[in-house]
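General statements about sequence and structure are easier to judge against a single worked case. For one protein, we set the task of working out the structure tokens from the amino acid sequence alone. This step matters because it turns folding into a mapping between discrete strings. The amino acid sequence and the backbone structure tokens for this protein are reproduced below.
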Amino acid sequence: MASSKQEVTAKKKTVSKASRKKSHAVASKKKRNQKVSRYGKRRSNAVALQSRLDRERQAALSRLPHRVGPTEVFQASTLQLPLNLESRAAVVINAETGELLYSKNSSRTMPIASITKLMTAMVVLDAHLPMDEIITISDADVDKVKHTSSRLTVGTSMPRSEAMLLALMASENRAAAALARTYPGGTAAAVAAMNRKASELGMTHSHFADGTGLQMQNMASPTDLVRMVKAARSYPEIRQFSTTSEHSLVAGRRILPYRNTNALVKNDTWDIEVSKTGFINEAGKCLVMHARVNSTPVVIVLMDSNGRYTRIGDANRVKKWLEAAVQSFTLSENQYTEHQ
């Protein structure tokens, strides 16, 4: 009899336990359904909000005289977002229309360091010298101004084209000095041609003193450098050499690897057509580029940056600023200008 009662009690406990489990399962399912419902509602609200924003955006665009595309945005100077650059002087222009997009101390004449080498390359190419002619590094090419080092020892020979490649890509001073020295009439004639070229381009605040940029007397304003970069783009050799990412020079039994001084030429998010870096203490870190952002050609000039990566950071900030302006479709009649 006692055994029978125990069996009944055990059975009741089992039923009660199963009932509780079932009740808990039902409650959990209900909770999950509520969460799913809330998620679905939030998702539905988000979709509705995005749809409303899209309609408002389309309505705003329809009120414009015509639809604004990326290039047209740059032309309309719709860049109202703040742009904080570390470079002491900078200019950004739409290379297609010539419109000024950003300006900071754009008329200040400053040392330009190795940006000078772009002008050296242009006058050498203008002289139509044979690019396959072998030129040899001499003692006259050794830097006696800043006493910078070079892996191109005196006696190293290479075609003129390779010397120009190293001068533009790796900013090789002895290569640039050799280009100027082997110009018809020598270095003095090359420098005179550089100053004439600057005058022809309308670079009214510029002066060139050598073919390397090592002397601080090589000077220009950011606005002048815009003119020089635009002119440099018309030379296929400069476009190719200045954007080559790396090159190995065979010098006798030595193989000398060189890399571009502008790391952005290897960055897939950039479309760079002309590039040149520069540095001496008097000039700070400098960078000029002719590039395409959102299919729009722009010239970017950054001068006197402090820090190893500041000019690269500034270039990336400019690019993001331009891209953000295209996405925002904000219209303005005034360009953004910063004074220091």
